[in-house]
Amino acid sequence: MAYFYLMLLVLVEALKPGLPFVLEDAAQNSLKWPKEYHLRGEEVNILTGIMEPFEVWYSTSSNRSRVDYNGGTVKQYYVVEDPEGSQLKKYVINPITTEEVTNELVCEEQIEDEKLFDILPTPTNYTFKEQETYNGKLVEVWKYFEEKGVDEEKLEETLYVYRDDGGISIPVYLEIKNHNLWTGVVDKHTVTRYYDYSEPDNDALDHNLEESCNNTATVLTDLQKNFHELPSDVEGSFSSYVIRHQKKYLGDEHEIRKQIFKKNLRRVIEHNQQNLGYKLTLNKFSDRTDDELAYLRGALPSLEHVGTVPFPHTEEEVELLAQELPEYYDMRIEGYITSVKNQADCGSCWSFSTVAAVEGALARSNGGRDLDLSEQSLVDCAWGFSSFGCSGGVINDVYKYVLKHGIPTEMEYGLYLAREGWCGLENMTSVYKIKGFAAVPPLSVNAMKVALYKYGPVTVTINANDAVVHYESGIFYDPSCNKQRLNHAVTVVGYGKRDGVDYWIVKNSWGEDWGEDGYILFSATDNNCHILEDAFYPVV
Asked: Which of 58, 363, 481, 517: disulfide with 336, CB 3.0–4.6 Å?
């Protein structure tokens, strides 16, 4: 992947404008976005390697907007139908592939409390700097800069626009960088190019012309709550949080996010004052409701805890083998585990946990050579095996898919999209299959240790409650999560002991900026968060 990231950086440099020159006429006093527009473009995330083409239609006169991703693979229509504009309907269209159908389009209707989708940034944030040439066109350069000494963060945004005959600003380029001045690391870097500006076609904004939307399911989301006034001593913390995590809110949403943040801030402070053995922190999820974060938890419990091959040891053998196991075992040290990935805004944890386990099992069998397999292939193609793209999946059935169809490398299949895509498995030259998968005997700490040491990694389904979402460090133990259902798939890659407490080393898929560099240490006590109930490992 390093070569790909290098090429992305070369592309970004090539897209930048040439040396500035001075013109007599100054730019207009402020940015003025069009109220009706059609744009194409692509966003490049330099840090994750995700390049996402998009096409957007936006119309204030018809109260409609639409965005297509990756050449129309996923389409999202936004429609405000009531005169007050208080309720917005969102129609999401994406392909599914099962054993019976290939790339069939489905449409889901959602009712949400938010604004029309508008891809253009908030114009009041920017200050005019100069004029330059960009691809042979005269453009205005606008900058946004903010530095917070408390958090040692520096945000830089550079926007290039040109003016049409009516003085409307048309975007062509936007670069966003966020620097952590304390570590010297750029923790966000995206480049967006816009092109093909035109007036929107009304037919393009009409979801009724999509055949797949004739029969839709409705999903209700409730963001509006009865909130109280935010005390002034929390205001500064929220302002720092907004800058640190690059948050941008529209209208009344700002106040709503403050209150959600306030609740989580209180929860984090109260927890950390108790010194319970693990710490919580405010992170990129701390301004979101549990319902909004449902995409993080996209795993469904297995209907039966049975593998295609039996667990190879009896209970008596497990106890004997456990006596010979080392006290600490970490497959990361062995070189079997690939880097932590980020499922982003897609409920595909089931795909990431499965891929991580298969990657580790293959690395164990081939002398430690890591393979970067494609989570996207499972999101696109495994619909016939109790998986639903970004809406969740069942681990043991996903293993059945891998047993039958295999997983290609990400290099051949294509980058992870964080959206459903067209299934392209038939175009792959090679895929990596498994011989089967085994179920770890439930509720047995020693059986899990044996499975990890001899055969792992192990995919598990847990309950990821709010404390897990805000985990920072330490050995996580929360009895309350055992009262809630299984909802998130992760990968156990080792075990250890600290201060007499056994723990599991668990790889998550929420990015390296969550937890302990993307990992969480789960207590092995009392089947913490159901971690010993739904465990499987692949056999290669």
From this structure: 363
Quote the CA–CA distance of 365 and 154 in Å, as a whole number. 45
Please give the model's pTM, rounded to 2 decimal places.
0.73
CATH number of 2-218: 2.50.20
Question: How far, in whole angstroms, is CA 532 from its chain's centroid?
Answer: 26
Active site residue 488: yes
With residue 197 as reference, give the H or E element that holds it: strand 185-198
Marked catalytic residue, from 346, 349, 381, 390? 349
Torsion of CA 499, 504, 507, 509, to 10 degrees: -100
Q: Give me 469's structure tokens.
A: 């979402």
**Does residue 508 carry a catalytic annotation?**
yes
* Range list for CATH 3.90.70.10 in the chain: 293-539
Catalytic residue among 346, 488, 528, 530: 488
The domain defined by 293-539 carries CATH number 3.20.20.80: no
**Largest Cα–Cα distance of the chain, in whole Å?**
87
CA pair distance 376, 362, nearest whole angstrom: 19
Residue 122, pLDDT score: 85
The secondary structure of 390-436 as a DSSP string is TB-EEHHHHHHHHHHH-B-BHHHH----SS-----GGG-S--B--SE
The segments of the chain whose pLDDT lies below 70 read: 1-28, 82-86, 112-114, 148-152, 181-184, 215-233
Using an 8 Å Cβ cutoff, are 498 and 335 in contact?
no
